[in-house]
Amino acid sequence: SKGRGHAKQNDIVHPTKSGNFDSLNTLDDESTDANVQKSVEGYVLFVTGVHEEAKDDDIYEKFSDYGHVKQFNVPLDRKTGFVKGYALIEFATFKEAQAALNGCDQT
Length: 107
Fold this sequence. Notes:
The protein is α+β, with helices and mostly antiparallel strands and 107 residues long. Helices cover 19% and strands 16% of the residues.
């Protein structure tokens, strides 16, 4: 016996060393883009170019025109209290997220 920390070569100490990993082989039935995967929560858009003085209500209203906004996050700068310039908008379905992406692109 060699003591603690010495495992036999055949023993698997950590699951990733076995070569068995989780996979994401299937797409959600609603999505058509091969680069899209549904997260646990829904479909999240990373929106850039948000004006620093934009209000939460204005952002919510803009994106709720395209579907039900499950959740949204608008990070604020700690020093100034202004918006950092981006937002995370979560939709329940791919179609709603795609509609928001197409409708708000470059606006």
